Amino acid sequence: MAPTNTAIPGLLSLPRLTTLLASLIVAVGAGTNYVRFSAQPSPSFSLNQLPSSAYSPQLAARLHISHTQLNIVGLAGNVGVYISGPFWGRIVDSRGPRLPLAFAFVFLFFGYTGIRHFYDVGLEGDTTLSTFSLGLLIACSFMTGAGGNAAFTGAVNSTAKSFPDKARATTTGIVLSGFGLSAFFFSTLAHILFPGDTSSLLLLLSLGTALTAIIGFFLVRAIPLSAAEDSDHMVVPTVAAEAEATIFDHGNDSHTPLLDEEAAPLAEDPSAGSGRTSSHSRSRSRSKQDAFEGPNIYGRALWINPDFWLLFAILSLLSGTGLMYINNVGSMSQALFAKGNPTYDEVEASQWQATQVSTISIMNFAGRIVIGLISDNVKNRFGFPRSYSLVLVSSLFFCSQLLARQIADVTNLWKASALVGFSYGTIFGLFPTVCIEFFGLSHFSENWGYLSLSPLVGGNLFSIAFGRNLDAHEPGESTAAATVERFVAHQCLEGRSCYVATLGLTGTACFAAILLSGLAAWRERRKIIAATAARPRVVWGGY
């Protein structure tokens, strides 16, 4: 027998709040893949000068590996995050979050433990790391990325399924914010507890991330919704639909029998593809609101769906812009700091870099929460789908690139970093719920896994463009440049001219994303109007 609504926990019940809090804790432990990028001091720093908020430079120094090899190690972690998404998503959709969380514990613990082992052993003299050892180090980095994504996927999926549509963007935004704050949380904690101790930072990452996975294993689970809450996302959210419900909601004072209550199928969505079953295009209930089944698009139907590629392109352009900035803000701040500065101070330069990273992390956290509140409010109060908020997010990114182009002093770079961080947070706070609205909740995690492959495209493209732009500017011949060059090898010292062309490229990409976001919102509006027109009408008969 199906459980009654009285047996199902309420919206603010202890089981739902426990899942939300535990999912947030899991997310905080899942985003540590970016701790390695928390600061990028120059290679000439001594180990005792390097801040404890990053371990990539220290690892490179201990193992005598090149910048190219270090980037490969870092790339392995990113690949682990993105490539594993569809795999973990399919498992979570079909079996729940516990199995991925178990794998997350194993991958995170042994991944960071392995990296720590390499760091502690180190290399002496002029010896170099063997190919086999480098392969193991790359594998450990991959495990940290894949493990973090396993935990994160389980946490977001459980939260999305535990809260009704009216609160889904807000609650998932809270969980997503934990992922954005992860690097800042662990690097700050390590700086307080073990200042300057990279081995202890890696131990903290090993034990801390594994502990969050254990907490999630026992406490994170999807709490079923009541029939009314579960159908919230199926109600056509338009003023026209509300008016139509009012028109056909007549009182039956004459006790006239209802002659025809059969629900008409939804208008066929031209973008749904062949994977959308007919059972998901018909009315599921006979309530006064005439709630409908939401979409259920996955597998082959997802890949041939124009909306999937539209969202893929938008996310690629925006996330690629954000990743380019995040991964290279150290070089940007270094170029601005060195411009016209004859007394280059390495410690101060590192502090400016760390300032940008902290600003980005905090604003990333804020953006994920704020966009959830905004998109829920826009939908619940005004009846607009969440895809309308894509235009806002794209516009924020466009403004961030315009602002970054204008900044010529490192003391003002935090303004651009704050806007980029906030914008980056809004994308990943909004897109999961948009993915649900477009393709349905049943296969959400698998679909989101495929959609989240898009940052690999935009991120690599724009980062390569940034690197080439930087390489094209040789160090100047001024006294300041000559002074700085001995401290910072292969670094452009010409201020914003070192990278402004790349910001022009990303600015153009963000403007294109605005146009594509408008197209996505228009397509969603068109589907809603078609669904509204096809809503079942009650035919009343009389004697």
Automatic annotation (TrEMBL):
Give membrane topology per the record.
Multi-pass membrane protein
Instruction: Give its localization.
Output: Membrane
Question: Main subcellular localization, coarse class?
Answer: membrane
Region annotated Disordered, chain positions: 266-291
> Can you provide one Gene Ontology molecular function annotated for this UniProt record?
transmembrane transporter activity
Instruction: List UniProt keywords, sorted A-Z.
Output: Membrane, Transmembrane, Transmembrane helix
Protein name in the entry: NmrA domain-containing protein
Q: Which organism is it from?
A: Mycena venus
